[in-house]
Specification:
The structure is a homodimer.
Chain A lengths: L2 H10 L3 E3 L21 E3 L4 H14 L3 E4 L16 E4 L6 E5 L4 E5 L4 H10 L2 E3 L11 H6 L7 H4 L2 H4 E7 L5 E4 L13 H4 L8 E11 L4 E8 L2 H14 L4 E8 H10 L12 E8 L3 H17 L5 E4 L3 H11 L5 H4 L3 E7 L5 H15 L4 E6 L5 E7 L5 H17 L24 H14 L12
Parallel strand pairs in A: 2-4, 3-4
Antiparallel strand pairs in A: 1-2, 5-6, 6-10, 7-10, 8-9, 8-10, 11-13, 11-14, 12-13, 12-16, 15-17, 16-17
Helix pairs in contact in A: 1-2, 13-14
Family (chains A, B): Belongs to the FAD-binding oxidoreductase/transferase type 4 family.
Cofactor (chains A, B): FAD
GO biological process, one term (chains A, B): respiratory electron transport chain
């Protein structure tokens, strides 16, 4: 056993697992990278354990990969050869719900779904929500500044975070378990750790702000014939009912074609339309809310902004509408290997982005099946490209096509999934040299030996 | 002339003012500190000018104080002897309003009121608002993470900031004029500059996200008999109408007594009450909104949560209600010298805070006139203490009393005004050693020679 492993075992005993005692699940995350066994797996039970582990690793210059729910798509939690994995899976639990402050304090390894349920039981709503809610952890959500379907209303993980406890690379514990909306006492150092994907420190405890539960949520599918019309629907809805929109998802024509012709869902409308919107809004008390919602959509129809619309009359309708949006989770059953992109494009360039794909994808990759969809109110689209017998050259080609376009349009190569290992080669498409130099300086200051998630982000 | 002044004049010519050519307004800010003439005043007209100025000052180890609208209360922009002042007053102008993205791009020296008007002219609302709107600048608002009356709904300046351009201590320009709600491409370095009060870099250009304008704002004054009841009103209002509250200001009994008996306003209610709340909510279309608002307040009255209430029926009513909240701007005319505190207290400790003041202020400072009021939904209260013939010892005593209490209750010594020079000695009341060490590391990394706003914050 190497010196560092001996020191870890001596200090942390059975919290350190080696060799065959390391479960396969800790060899990989959801990125699809080939599994790699870490040198050791540390399963701390407290912040003090995390501090001990990092102090030892820091002394020995030992690289550490931090693991939460292992649901990340960018390879941030995927071990590299020789790394020690530090999994927060045993640091779970809601420590406090303070109804006066409308805050929830939890250990970082707590699954998001547990946090959501605890908030709901206390009469509140957790503003962070995403598909992986059952497995992902609240610490991982914050470390990656997770997005999701309701960012439009509640913001990214950053906006929901009031306080943090984190362990620095050398084992120092910094703690600001702030429950107050306003705190301008010095630099808000917690901002450094939000979205830095475990490269600047390990988040061990979080305070999130809770929201009032929405009342009477209304759901509709709307057909529109251009992105400009979709944007007009978004802005006019917001003008008529400020702050009520929860969800504004766009699914372009190609997406709906795959949903119906390949995944087997019934067509949403009699005719095909360029874009289908999934809209949810918190319209208040059921009967008046439902009427106001339908009236507004009727107005949009009469103004020619929407070509067709269906409003959910039941839970079953709502599920049926969401089923379109959720077809990408099923693509594995129907389509060949995919590359999935999570990018942002400024809204005034969105039409150009889709037009470019419509021109270039069939020309350069005639056999590809590709779709565009996403949280457009947040500028965020997902692009999935499935190609039979995908080679690594094809993959690179598609990546260059998409990231090149994003870069030209002033977009971001990562909207909500982060950079991790997979997007690292493309970071300079969204960031300038002075920005990258500034990031490197921050990394060097906080992790001078480069032991935390090396090779991720930067 | 010293070498550094010579170099500045050589590079920037008439943008550098010396001696008697420096206007008196640049000798101080709104902190009340004694005016001090800076060595020179630089009035850059572009980001490149700022970069040139900082590069020269950095080379010479020359300290620089950055000035915006000079409305800060913590002394952050107040020159110290030997400093060069860098005022952004000539860098004004709205550069773009993008209605598709709902964003506004402006030079940092643009007054907030100009930004607000431009947003309004384009059919949107700027989420940043505070009393000094006519003089303060959007760059200063972001550099100090300004708060205000509508933080409850729109958040602090941080939440409204999407992109920044800043000049580092050595003159490097970093630029991320991001217009997208989601951008997880690497560290969000802009977060470093928000709220760091000019000590890490100079903000030169900003992108802010705009909001839909509220519809049919309703205003009421409500009397409640305890802070617990006030909190219940807040939470039940939010549960009934999530996301509609804009303003939730509390004025404790002592505040209303000063407003009526000293400042001469008519009593708001027939009887005295422990707390008066000023509530505003965006209730939608006028007739139904006004009815829903009144009905909810009636419900609260019947539940015994509020003891009395008046709803504004006109613009004049609304102004009359706000006049109570704005009496502190008039205290100078009626009261002896004041110390003004801007602190946060966790909501579940707020009653303790006020009870402590009610016990200790009359005991320790029997001749003082003191009031508590503020943005309580954000945990933020202001405490003003006026004492005749205030000595510096008395001042220190009162500061220790208030900051000691805030520290014991886990609050923050600065909610929204920042630390500047005035609160610097008290920062350790709200921050631990590891936090202060981390802040110092960030400062050291970004400004190794310590030339930017030295002696402020840290």
């Amino acid at each position: 056993m190497s010196n560092v492993l001996e020191a870890l075992v001596a200090a942390l005993g059975p919290q350190v697992r080696l060799g065959a005692d390391i479960p396969g699940r800790n060899h990989t995350d959801a990125s699809g990278l080939q599994p790699v066994a870490p040198q050791a797996l540390i399963l701390p039970q407290s912040t003090e354990d995390v501090a001990t582990a990092l102090r030892i690793c820091h002394e020995h210059g030992q690289s550490v990969v931090t693991q939460g729910g292992l649901t990340g798509l960018a390879g941030g939690a995927h071990p590299q050869s020789g790394e020690v994995a530090l999994s927060l899976e045993r640091m779970t639990g809601i420590e406090e719900i303070d109804p006066a402050s409308a805050t929830l304090t939890a250990l970082a390894g707590t699954p998001l779904a547990i946090v959501q349920q605890a908030a709901e039981d206390a009469g509140f709503l957790c503003g962070i929500d995403l598909g992986a809610r059952g497995s992902c952890t609240i610490g991982g959500n914050i470390a990656t500044n997770a997005g999701g379907n309701q960012v439009l209303r509640y913001g990214m993980a950053r906006r929901n975070t009031l306080g943090l406890e984190a362990v620095l690379a050398d084992g120092t514990v910094v703690r600001s378990l702030n429950k107050m909306l306003k705190n301008n006492a010095g630099y808000d150092w917690t901002q450094l750790f939000i979205g830095s994907e475990g490269t600047l420190g390990v988040i061990t405890r979080v305070v999130i702000g809770l929201h009032p539960k929405p009342q009477g949520v209304q759901t509709a599918l709307c057909a529109v014939s251009s992105f400009d019309d979709a944007l007009a629907v978004l802005r006019r809805f917001q003008q008529s009912y400020p702050g009520r929109l929860l969800v504004f998802e766009a699914m372009w024509r190609e997406f709906m074609t795959v949903a119906t012709q390949i995944c087997g869902l019934s067509p949403a409308f009699e005719e095909d339309h360029d874009l289908t919107l999934l809209i949810e809004a918190d319209m208040g008390e059921e009967s008046t809310g439902s009427e106001a919602f339908s009236t507004l959509l009727s107005d949009f129809y009469e103004q020619g902004l929407i070509k067709d619309a269906v409003v959910a009359q039941s839970r079953a309708d709502r599920n049926r509408f969401w089923a379109y949006r959720e077809t990408p989770y099923e693509y594995g059953r129907f389509l060949p290997e995919e590359i999935r992109f999570d990018v942002s494009v400024p809204l005034d360039r969105m039409t150009e982005a889709v037009e470019y794909l419509r021109q270039e994808m069939p020309r350069q990759y005639p056999d590809s099946v590709w779709v565009v969809f996403g949280h457009v109110a947040d500028s965020n689209i997902h692009i999935n490209v499935a190609i039979k017998d995908m080679t690594s050259d094809t993959k690179k080609g598609v990546q260059n096509l998409v990231y090149g376009m994003v870069s030209r349009l002033g977009g971001s190569i990562s909207a909500e999934h982060g950079i991790g290992r997979i997007k690292r080669p493309y970071l300079n498409r969204s960031r300038t040299e002075p920005e990258l130099a500034l990031m490197a300086k921050m990394k060097q200051t906080l992790d001078p030996k480069g032991i935390l998630n090396p090779g991720r982000v930067l």
